[in-house]
Amino acid sequence: xxxxxxxxxxxxxxxxxxxxxxxxxxxxxxxxxxxxxxxxxxxxxxxxxxxxxxxxxxxxxxxxxxxxxxxxxxxxxxxxxxxxxxxxxxxxxxxxxxxxxxxxxxxxxxxxxxxxxxxxxxxxxxxxxxxxxxxxxxxxxxxxxxxxxxxxxxxxxxxxxxxxxxxxxxxxxxxxxxxxxxxxxxxxxxxxxxxxxxxxxxxxxxxxxxxxxxxxxxxxxxxxxxxxxxxxxxxxxxxxxxxxxxxxxxxxxxxxxxxxxxxxxxxxxxxxxxxxxxxxxxxxxxxxxxxxxxxxxxxxxxxxxxxxxxxxxxxxxxxxxxxxxxxxxxxxxxxxxxxxxxxxxxxxxxxxxxxxxxxxxxxxxxxxxxxxxxxxxxxxxxx
Length: 383
Fold this sequence. Notes:
By secondary structure, the protein is mainly beta. It has helices at residues 4-11, 251-255, 259-264, 335-342, 345-348, 355-367; strands spanning 25-28, 34-35, 43-50, 64-67, 71-76, 79-84, 89-93, 108-112, 117-122, 125-131, 136-143, 150-153, 159-163, 173-179, 184-189, 208-213, 216-221, 226-230, 236-243, 267-273, 277-284, 287-294, 299-304, 323-325, 328-333, 375-381.
């Protein structure tokens, strides 16, 4: 990665935050919107998939999830567990340590279905593992001089997106695309340098957001309204504007950082996209809610980020969209929580659109032990 400085000069002319074009949709984050409460208003199918519980697959808490066409990958602290789409445990990666194939901490991770690869981002290093039928097999690593916070494969390309944001505020760039050999393909400079007060440190998980949709990757930083993508020519282009009406954190915010002022401003914490909807979680003036932008009708709805969406389809727990892959939304629930819920009056008295689905959910919950692994909740949105 030795081409930073030349590329910065080339890109800085055109790739700031205000990169709107005629083809770029804009969503007004703070405009009035109707509140929706039921899952059926945006979804067509909901299903529950229990993750097999065994001595080698115990899950205390799910930190993150990835999926591909045939498998589900679960991140729990220093371990990656692999299941098939029916929830049957296959194998895991558990190599904490200081050896060449090991890691001390996983900052971020991703899987590439095209290349059958697992990528781990640890301290100034990327580790590559081949995903075989029975295990993760270490291939090699890449070392960096910089400390990145996020790393994702770019679908359909042998390219990785790396993003960085730190409390120092003086990075030369925010987003860097590299190939699997570590050569720089493209980058987006840091347009928002700042100098925070002395002895002030801060971090938040949504400083850089990556997500995938329609075989492409998209990314946004906390100080910018624009969601960018990498097109087929490996050019960085605007994809979507999440219009904050100038209420985003700015360089002034970070120059004079305080928790109170930061959370009074607009913070997009999560973005998911499917063919019909853009779904995002927004924090503004210390209030949090989800927005659902309908790309067909060009309208926006919202729902509460604590109550979530009531499952009026099969009567399950209220649904919080946490992850999106292949046009499906994912969440999860602990086995004991699900078991207690189906015994409650709320579940028993619930009126649902799919009574057979409710009956199947009750049978599933009854088959679980309280100490079993979490159960995935998978929702197919409307077309």
